[in-house]
Every structure is written in C-alpha cells, then in structure tokens.
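pasting input
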Amino acid sequence: MESLLAGLLQAALAAAAAPLLTGVLRTLKARLVGRRGPSVLQPYADLRKLLGKEPVISPTTSWIFRVTPWLLASTSLVAALLVPLVFTRPTLVPAGNIILVMSLFMLATFFLALAGLDAGSAFGGLGASRSVALAALAEPTVILAVFALAIRAGTSDLGGIIERLAAEPAQAVAPGHLLALAAFFIVMLAETGRLPVDNPATHLELTMIHEAMVLEYSGHYLALVEWASAMKFLLFLALLANLFFPFGVPASLAPGPLILGVAALAAKLAGLVVALALIETAVAKLRLFRVPELLAGSFALGVVSVTSAFVLP
Amino acid sequence: MSAPGYLSAVLLGVLGTAGGLAGMLGWTWQLGLHEALPAGGLRLAMDPLSGLFVALVAATAVPTSLAGLEYARRDGRGWLVYLGFVGAMIAVPLAANALTFLLAWELMSLASYSLVLHRGRSDESVRAAWVYAVMTHAGLGFLLTGMLLLGAWTGSLAFADWRAAAPMLTPTARGVAFALLALGFAAKAGAIPLHVWLPLAHPAAPSHVSALMSGVMIKLGIYGLLRAGLDWLGGGPAWWGVAVMLAGAVSALVGVLYALVDHDLKRLLAFHSIENVGIILIGLGAGMTFRAAARPDLAVLGVAAALYHTVNHAAFKSLLFLAAGAVLHSTGTRNMEHLGGLISRMPWTAAAFLVGSVAIAGLPPLNGFVSEWLTFQALLHSLTVPRAGLNLAFAAAMAALALTAGLALACFVKAFGITFLALPRSPAAAQARESGRPVRGAMGLLVLACGALGLGPTLIVPALAQVAVPLVGAPAPPALGGGLTLRLSGDFASLSTPVVAVALALGVALPLAGLGLAGVGRRRRISETWGCGRLVQTARMEYTATAFANPFKRVFDFFYRPVRQLDIEVHPESRLFVRRIAYENPIRPLFEEWLYRPALGVLHRSARRLQAIQSGSANAYLLYILGALLALLVLR
C-alpha cells in the first residue's frame, strides 16, 4: 500500500514537473544565444491557454484522432509508474521492464503517427512517415543499450539494474557501459525531438518531424499532446540519468532517503539539461536523410555494447 | 451445397480444438490403420506437442470457415478441397510414421495448391500456383530424402523407432538428417531464402484460405522443425540451434523490410508471415542452443517463447487476412494506393485490423507483445551461459529482433493508416460496404483471442512450458510465477499484462474524467484540414504508401537497390508543357537475382544437355529401362 502511494506520488511529481523541464531548457537556450527568453513557467501558461480553447477538428478525421491524445497521456503516466525516478522500486515494476517501457512509448508513437495520417493532409503524412522512420531505428537502440547494462547487472529489472550498478561504481567506466551511454544519448535526442534530429522550435515544413505530425491538433488535444511529449522528454532524461549514473537513488521508502532521491534526480536532470542546451546551441540540424546515418551509428554502438557486455569480463 | 461444407469445417474445428487441448493435457493415444500397407501403414499418435498443433489448426479453422461461409454465397466452389485442406493439416501433427506424415503433408500441399489456383485463370494466380508447386515439392524432396535416409539407418519408418535409435547414429549422420529435414520444413515455414513462393501464393488464394495458409499451414513447418530437431533426433550440437536462430534473424529482418515497401495489402501480410516465422525460429533456435549447452531449464523458455509466438501469430495473422479479405471483397482491390477512408465505411473491419496491427507490431498489452517479450528474455538469459561464440549469436539475434519490432511498427502504421484513414483514393474505396455477419463474427472471435492470449500469459506460458519439457529433456518446468505476474528466474524479469492493461485504461479514464469535470473540451468546431489556403481537400493531397515508405527505401537502399525510372512526355510544341509523367521506383529482389536465377540457369542448361537423349521414340526409352535394369543387377 505504501509503495503504491509512493509510486502514484512519483507519477504525479513527474506529471507536474515535466513542463518545467521543457521550460528550463528553452530559457537556457535563449540565454545562451543572448535572448532573454520566456519565463521557465511559460509551458504551464501555454498548457492552460490550450486547455481553455475550443478544439478545431477536421471532418476527415476518425475516432483515432480524438482517442490518441488520451492514449498518449495514459502511456506516459503508466511509464512514469514503471521507470525508477526517485526510488528504485516504483509501484508497477513487477509489471514489466525496459521492454515494456519502450513498448509503451512505441504504442504512443504508433497512434500518434496514425493520427498524423488521419486528417489527410500531406503535412501529417510527412511527419508520421519521418517520425516512425526515426522511431524504428531509435527504439531498438534503447532496448539494446539497456540490455547491455542488464547483462552486466544480471537482471533485466530496471530497479535491479540501478541497485546493482550503484553497488559497483567501477562498472560506470567499463567500455560496454560507455558505448551504451553514447548510444542511449544519441537516441534520446532523436526520440524526444531535439537538435540535431528535429527542431522543436520550428514550423518550417522541410525540417520538422514531430510538429508536422501534430499540426492538426488544437485546444485541449494539443495540450495533451504537448504535455505527453514533455513527459517523454522527462522520462528519457531520467532513465539516462538513473541508469548510467545510478547514484543517489534510494531503495527504501523512508522520508529521508526519498527527499535525497528527489534532490539527486533534480541535480542530475539539471546537469543533463545544461548539457543539452549547450549541444542544441552549438550544433545545426542535420539534413533529414543524414539522420538515419546517425541513428544507424547509434544502433551499431548498441550492438557493440551488448556484445562487449557478453564477451568482456 | 457449400454452406454445409463450411459448417462441417466449423464443427471439425470445434471438435479438433477440444481433442487437441485434451492431448496437451495428457490424453495420449495411438492408432494403427491399414497396417498391412507397405512401410508400416497408417499410424496416428497423440502427444502434448501434437495436441498443441492440432488445437492450433482446428481453432484457427473455426473463424476462417465462418468467413468461408460468407464468401461461399458468391462462389460455391472449392468447399470440398477446403475441407480436405483443414483435415490434412489436422492429420499432419498426428502422424506417427513417415508414410502417414508424407501422405498428410502432400495432401495439405496439393489442397492448398488447388485453392491458390481456385480464383481464376489470371496469369498472376497461375504463376503463383506454379512457383508454389515447385517450391513445395522441392521441400518435399528434402523431406523425403531425409526421412528415407533415417529409415535406412534405423531400419524403420516409425517415428518412435527413430526416437529410440537416434542416439546410436553417428554425429555426421544425425547432422545430415537434420540439415535435410530442416531445409524441407523451412521451405514450408517460408524461412529466407526458401520464401519465394509465400508472397506469391498467399495473396492469390481466397482470403479465408490465405488466413489458414499464413496462420497455420506455415506453422506446420515449425512443427516439423521441433519434431525433427528436438524429438526424432533428440537434440544435437550447438550449431543446429545457432543455424536456426540466425536463419530466424535473417528471415525476420528481410521479411519486414520487403513488407515495408510492398503496397499490396495481402502481399504485405504475407511478407509479415516471413518476419514472424523468423521471430519463432529465433526462439526455437535459442531453445535448441540452450539444450546443446546443457541448460534444459533455459531451453524450455526458448521453446515456450517460440510456441507462444506460433499461437499468437495464428491469431493475429488470420485476423489481419480476414480483414484484408473483407476490404478486398468490398473494394475489389488490394492496392493500398487505391484505398483510404475505410474506417468510416467499414468500422468493424477497421477496428479488427487495428487490433491485429497493434498485436503484430508487438505493442502492449496484446499478444504479440507478450511473446516477443518472452523471446527477448530467452535471449537475454544467454548471459548465464559463459560461451563467447554462442553469446555473439544471441547478441545478433537480439539486435535483429529489436530492429524487426521497430520496422514492423512502421509497416503497420502504413498498412492501417493508408488503407483505413483519411479520404478514399478511388471510387471503389468511396463506395465500400461493411462485410456481413459471418465475417464480422469471425473477426470478433479472433480479436477476443488476441486479447485473451495477451492478458493470460500466466496461464499460457506454464501450459506451453509443459509441452516443451519433454522435448528438451528438462526434469520439470521452471517456476514461472503465478497469479497475474509472470516471473522468470527469480527477479530476472517479470511481466503482468493485466496490470498494464488496467493501468492504461485508468490512465485514459482518470484524465478524461478530471479534465471533463473541469469543463475542458465542451465545445468543438468542425473545420476542414488545414491546407495552406487551398479550397477543397481531395485525396490527391494525401500522403501515399509509396511516399510513406520512402525514408526506409533510402535508409536501406543497400538492401533494396531501388531503380529510379522517370519518364516525362512533353508537348511537341514546347517542352515547358508536360503531358504526362511516369515515375517508377521499383526495388530489385535480392534472392531472386542472386540465388534463384543462377540456380534456374544451371537447371535449364543441364536440361538442355539432357535433351540429347530425349528422342521421343518409345524404343529408345525401353532401351534406357533395360540399361538401368542391367546396371542395377550388375551393381548389386
């Protein structure tokens, strides 16, 4: 019962904090290029505005279009119950492991791409096609990168991986581990629609992927889609932070360690967001058909990390 | 006359399912018929593995026969062959000696051959049936050779005698027998590179027959591999398993890559059958490898994963074929570029196809996800087998499986999105009508099966492990958790799809209720899709299947090797006025060009050389016979 409560609390915390993370990144990027930028709370204001507006729906669309935003919200909430964020044993961990988490994201990708096709505009199709092309290469890589860690830890349970790797800090510099980190990081950029793969700030049709796919959404549907992608961003960053830097994630539910866990996660996320802001300011967007090369490279890194985890002592 | 035929097929299906399930639970029996016939006569035997496959065939035949009932209203022919096809497929797993097995096997092949040809006299179906006949008999040739060799070495054609004598054979003999049998069965299963008949024959057959061919007939190839590798020959060295696993990895990837760029709805599904057979072979190969590495506890896991995916694929693939058949019957085309918008005209079919798509793409909480999860876990368990060479093969299989899952997702976004969503791309699609009750009922049954197989792994995996235990020589099935949670090897991995399903439902319901109470989304406006200011939205503005698949064609161009053909016809007066543009971007089939064409070339050349002795005169042939007879007498 206690763990159920803590798990729900963790999901609620993630749900509430996700737009903040996006806001912090946007403000940081603005500052880095010399603009003042919006307040870090701007995403909340955007969501509130969108929730109050009346959605415009195309008569071409079907129920898929209207169900998808709710399904996106649902998959991100369930994923937030599965991913160890502030303690290693979230409520639903017995329900599944990294394969389940990635499959939930794939479920969301699947329906979002269908919704992109549903309105019958060329934009939606273009976004859907590009988005599934990237996801098809990216999501297997995440599975492989985490498998590389699972092979070292001797369990495929996410909490178990974190606990065992935290107990052996020397593992963090093992070659397989570093390769997996590199693979995971590249894929995280692609999966959450960051530069150099996708540009979250543009609405130029030649360059966009995610934004083209959700072009037809408005009102509270758009609010749900935006919030779900903020959640996905938070969960990917948290997975990266906790799996590859598995320190300060408490296994117990006592208030002391739990507060420590929240603080540790916040510190790790802040570090990652600064790194991301620096990268996004420094690099230009890749040409679309160069992106698969990048992802194929990260897939290869994933394969190498799995083999090295098997073969190296 | 055809309706009673299909009704009796439904009855046969129900009875067969019951009998098969009873067999799985331990109702084993043997039956000898006409034992006076040469080669041991006809013998049947039931054991848990036979029971599983009998139940699989029979249970799938129930919905497909229901669908056949509806199609029979328009075209009453073919029901007797159909009934024979179902009966032969039930007989194959029950066969207890080589003669019975080969008779049932050949009856199954001939019945399906004639069903492929059934649809008419078009060049396409004639060619499909021809390629199918050649490939299936090439496979039969391998089987026959393997079985006759085994018969010669063990002195019997009864499977029970092979089982007893197999340990006494030399490793080379066992290897040769396994290779021959495996090739024969792999050709039936549609594994790469013996797959060429499958994407031709499955689409050409009537849809309820395609559902049976893809759903269960190719699974009998898997059954044969299980029998030959693990039962008759009693397991073998690690290379058997590794070969099966790598063949599976290649089949999975190649199958899904071809499916991605194919826009014929039924052929796309046929290519996905190759992919799914690949996934099954990965699990089976893992099981065989674990057995060779003296880890029967893990081998149970691999074989159970393969069996689970076999059952799941039967459910969702026959569902998808029935839905595709409903689309074909209603619109007259299988070409996705002429479809679209069917979700509003055929809502039931669309929902059924969506469920099938989610299941085959391996998405939670449906059945495809569970068996892919189990296959992944079986592969991951190789970390407890410290043999670097084997581990590399497992890593390759893992990578192939992960990539396959991603690509299958993309392919079914295309298949469902282009066929069922947005605006219809042709008048036929705009006038589509929902199919009748029998087909809808059949699809409903299969949707329920996909759901039940997805939510019940804690019941199904132990049952399948029980079937796998005697095959891999394990003392007892491993502990697999219970209640709602499937647990593997202690805390190594766990999965609870019912919990995930409930959590997903709550995740939709709670925000919906919360935001609804807060008054969000009360009003909505209907307005046309945004199109940069153009006035009327038409289907020509939609993305096409070709465009959708184009990123994949570019990423994997080393595999597809596409050829770009652009043909522009301009007005004679001025080349600024374009009259017609023809653009084609076909892919080049790798295996046909590099494997089959050279092989056929050799065949043709040697046939031409042999022409010299084909004079057509009966006297010459009698002379040949005399010569052969004399040679045999001398050589004896």
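fyi The longest strand of chain A covers residues 56-57.
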